[in-house]
Amino acid sequence: MGSAKRRWRWLLALAVMLALVITLALRSWPSTPAPVTVAARAAPAIPDKTSVALPPLQLPLAAATVMPPVPQVQIATPHDKHALVMPTAAVRAGSNRFLDGKWRARPAVDSPLTGKLPTLRYRLYHGKGTANLTQADGVRCSVNVEAGLMQSGNLVINSRTPARCSDGSRYQLPELICTPMGDDAAAQCIGRYGNQTDYPMMMTREKK
Fold first, then answer.
1. Whether residue 89 has pLDDT greater than 70
2. What pTM was computed for the model?
């Protein structure tokens, strides 16, 4: 009886020691590390060139500098000192006294149909006078003329009838029309023929 109790106690002590050894072994045994979840790093987004919004352009980018206009220098057109000048005061008064004397009206261009146009010579006094010309073949023509200022201010010199020529023929003189250009500029003149063809003319004084 006594030996059975001792055996039981010894087995119990052995079981306790075995349990203690197992417990210590389990604690000292390296545990399997828990799996670490690594968050995947997202690749950087590449901006779409077509969807990039540019900042609005603010105008003006700089203060605008307005340059003052360059003053235009009025250059007087040179003209023959004997060229016809229609004084402003005389034109306004309707006086043609400035036209008294001898004048020569020379075409500035040649006619493409008749060639060289003849030069006209006027002798005027108080709006009346005569006109003479010499044609290319030497035939001379003459006719009475009248000069007057129109309401527009233009000077008109014309004849009522064709000129009589030395060979018995008749020659229709052009109607001379001059436009005043001021006190310091030559008048602009044209010769208007019967077919309404205009030719520029240069009118200069020959002798008073």
1. yes
2. 0.59
Q: Residue 149's CB: how many other CB atoms inside 10 A?
A: 21
Work out the pLDDT band at 77, boundaries 50, 70, 90.
very low
Q: Report how far residue 167's alpha carbon sits from residue 200's, in angstroms, rounded to the nearest whole number.
A: 28
**Domains located in the chain, CATH noted:** 88-206 (2.40.128)
Main-chain dihedrals φ then ψ at residue 58, nearest 5 degrees: -95, 120
Residue 76 has pLDDT above 50, yes or no: no
Q: Are 156 and 169 in contact (CB under 8 A)?
A: no
Whether residue 75 is predicted with pLDDT greater than 50 in this model: the reply is no
Three-state SS string across the chain, please?
Answer: CHHHHHHHHHHHHHHHHHHHHHHHHHHHCCCCCCCCCCCCCCCCCCCCHHHCCCCCCCCCCCCCCCCCCCCCCCCCCCCCCCECCCCHHHHHHCCCHHHCEEEEEEECCCECCCECCCCEEEEEECCEEEEEEECCCCCEEEEEEEEEECCCCCEEEECCCCEEECCCCEECCCEEEEECCCCCCCCEEEEECCCCCEEEEEEEEEEC
pLDDT band, very low/low/confident/very high, at 47 (cuts 50, 70, 90): low
Q: What is the mean pLDDT of residues 75-104?
A: 85
CA 76 to chain centroid, in Å, comes to: 25
